[in-house]
Design goal:
two-stranded antiparallel ribbon; 3 domains; binds zinc ion; globular; 52% helix; 4-stranded antiparallel β-sheet
């Protein structure tokens, strides 16, 4: 028998808990359905949805975790489930970076949750468990059994938890043998909070670590990371996408070797145009260029949409505290979710089109207006012609905000900073103290967003004319 289910835990032959994790993920996905429904209510507060997530999804996901020892990769999977839950509570699109949501809400990560329940179970085993259970536990931790046991994995739980226990006990004078349940619980919680407070932050930093400089936001499509050339030799030069123009490409077509030249680069669609000597033309994607382009040449690494959003978020996030839009007392649930969406570009094509762009259809990241520009936050709020009719009050408010803050000029760059400030409340953007135009700016931005959404969804139908009804 490869595996069996026992008290909600799936035991497999090797005790790797792989099947257990898969089972828990499926169970949690069922529970997620109700949370998703609650999160779609615009008036229901984040804390109520969070509570429901904790009650149903987290309970299911971490069921039995106190008695198991997970591998790092399994904890990573649990962490991505936690982050996905946070994104759901904030009403973000599933392609928005979930770790930003988890960091904004300052949710506990998987390690924190698992270790907390393990320490809780350990306390119970020493204090309140039935006598028979305690005797088994005492026998299990007795040094004689360590040597006699032949199954390495069966030892792991108490070896693992006792190593953790030693860490917890050296941190301060609280001892599991003498502490009350509450004292022990408080100590464990504060220890874990201190140890894992930067988990999401570190994860986000790691995502953007390889790229050093992020160019200022433009309405141009940010370049995605080009696929590495599968050649055995490392690249000897790195070119910007535009610098490929004029380079020679060679492609095997049947028995013939077609030779051509790169004639131009389209930054919107991320395509190079090729003209072969035979007169034929073609459009190359990054992977085509890696396979058939000039040898030993890499395409310059440039941050994509996610990396750009993460970099800006990291710059303006509060230290060790929930994000402004989560913590500010006066905001409604709708407003909290709105600003979270602004920070992650959640409702826009740049975010929604991420998945399809990986598969070559980069047009999904473009706005549907005539300019076909990349649909970024600044395009949506300040440039897109489709919403020009309802934009004036917002532009006026942003202009006023820029004028009053002295560091920002009332142009697209300044407006972008104004919007960033509205979403993050970052003091980096208002070094001279609170800006009196701030409240008005936020109000106008929300109004604009609501009106723009109405324009987006209320397109007139091109219906055929109906025959007039005779009386
Ligand atoms: Zn547009």
């Amino acid at each position: 028998m490869p595996s069996c289910k026992f008290l909600g835990t799936v035991l497999d032959r090797e005790l790797t808990w792989e099947r257990h994790i898969v089972h828990r993920e499926t169970q949690a996905a069922d529970a997620l359905f109700h949370v998703r429904q609650l999160a779609s209510h615009s008036t229901l507060g984040l804390k109520h949805v969070t509570r429901e997530w904790e009650r149903s999804v987290a309970q299911s996901l971490f069921y039995g975790a106190d008695a198991l020892v997970f591998q790092q990769t399994q904890l990573k999977r649990l962490n991505s489930e936690v982050a996905r839950g946070a994104a759901l509570v904030l009403g973000l699109h599933h392609t928005a970076t979930p770790a930003i949501a988890a960091d904004m809400l300052q949710w506990r990560n998987a390690e924190q949750r698992v270790q907390h329940t393990q320490m809780h179970l350990l306390w119970e085993l020493q204090h309140t468990a039935p006598p028979k259970t305690r005797r088994i536990y005492q026998a299990l931790i007795a040094p004689t059994l360590h040597r006699e046991s032949t199954h390495a994995r069966l030892q792991a739980w108490h070896v693992h938890t006792h190593a953790l226990l030693a860490e917890f006990e050296t941190a301060n004078s609280t001892r599991i043998s003498t502490a009350s349940k509450k004292e022990w619980g408080d100590h464990v919680q504060s220890f874990l909070r201190a140890a894992h407070t930067d988990h999401w932050l570190e994860q986000l930093k790691a995502r953007v670590a390889p790229t050093s400089a992020v160019p200022p936001p433009t309405s141009q499509r940010p370049q995605r990371v080009c696929a590495p050339r599968p050649a055995p030799l490392p690249a000897v030069r790195t070119l910007q996408p535009e610098e490929f123009v004029g380079e020679v490409v060679t492609k095997q077509v049947g028995d013939d070797l077609e030779v051509g030249t790169v004639t131009s680069y389209d930054p919107h669609r991320q395509r190079w145009h090729i003209r072969y000597r035979s007169g034929a033309t073609a459009a190359f994607t990054a992977s085509h260029m890696a396979a058939h382009g000039p040898p030993r040449t890499a395409c310059a690494l440039q941050p994509g949409t996610s990396e750009h959003a993460i970099t800006e978020y990291l710059l303006h996030r509060p230290k060790n505290a929930p994000a402004w839009c989560v913590a500010a007392p006066a905001l409604s649930a709708y407003q909290r979710r709105h600003w979270a969406k602004v920070i992650t570009s959640s409702d826009l094509a740049v975010c929604r089109g991420k998945y399809t762009s990986k598969h070559g259809d980069s047009s999904r990241q473009l706005c549907t207006c005539k300019s076909a520009a990349l649909e970024t936050i600044e395009h949506f709020y300040f440039e897109c012609a489709a919403y020009a009719a309802v934009r004036q009050p917002l532009t006026d408010a942003a202009t006023e905000w820029c004028k009053l803050s002295a560091e920002h000029t009332p142009d697209t760059g300044g407006f972008r900073q104004a919007l960033l400030w509205a979403a993050t409340d970052s003091q980096l953007l208002t070094p001279n103290g609170p800006n009196t135009a701030g409240d008005d700016l936020r109000k106008r931005a929300l109004e604009f967003y609501a009106k723009a959404k109405a324009i987006r969804h209320n397109k007139s139908m091109d219906a055929a004319t109906q025959p007039t009804q005779s009386a």
